[in-house]
Automatic annotation (TrEMBL):
This is DNA-directed RNA polymerase subunit M. One of its GO terms (biological process) is DNA-templated transcription. The keyword ATP-binding does not apply. GO terms for cellular component: DNA-directed RNA polymerase complex. Coiled coil: none annotated. Residues 2-57 form the DNA-directed RNA polymerase II subunit RPB9-like zinc ribbon domain. It comes from the Archaea. The keyword Transcription applies. Pfam families: Zn_ribbon_RPB9 (PF02150). It comes from Sulfurisphaera tokodaii. Keywords: DNA-directed RNA polymerase, Transcription.
Length: 101
């Protein structure tokens, strides 16, 4: 691996005008790629396509998501109605108890 003589950044092989060169990743300094350098930058190990890392992601239909949001909103409204009615019943029962005394 080569490092840039100007800034110390890593030099990576690239092609420019049909020639292979080494270009600094930080400052953009360029130098010719020699046969010796080319050997240093060759891939020594290839990954097997079957050894890929499997990942998961949440993929859902927007229609389903919209339905879930509507259902959540409806359940939230029902909950608040129940809580409100319960509080109202408590207030009414307290008023009737105080009126009886």
């Amino acid at each position: 691996m080569k490092f840039c003589p100007k800034c110390g950044g890593v030099m990576i092989p690239t092609k420019k005008d049909g020639k292979e060169i080494l270009r600094c990743t930080k400052c953009g300094y360029e130098m010719e790629l020699t046969a010796k350098d080319k050997k240093e930058y060759s891939v020594k190990e290839q990954k097997d396509k079957n050894s890929r890392v499997l990942t998961t992601s949440l993929v859902s239909d927007k229609g389903e998501r919209k339905l879930e949001e509507e259902q959540l909103e409806q359940e939230r409204e029902e909950y608040y109605k129940e809580v409100g009615l319960e509080l109202l019943r408590e207030e009414l029962s307290e008023e009737t108890e105080s009126d009886e005394e």
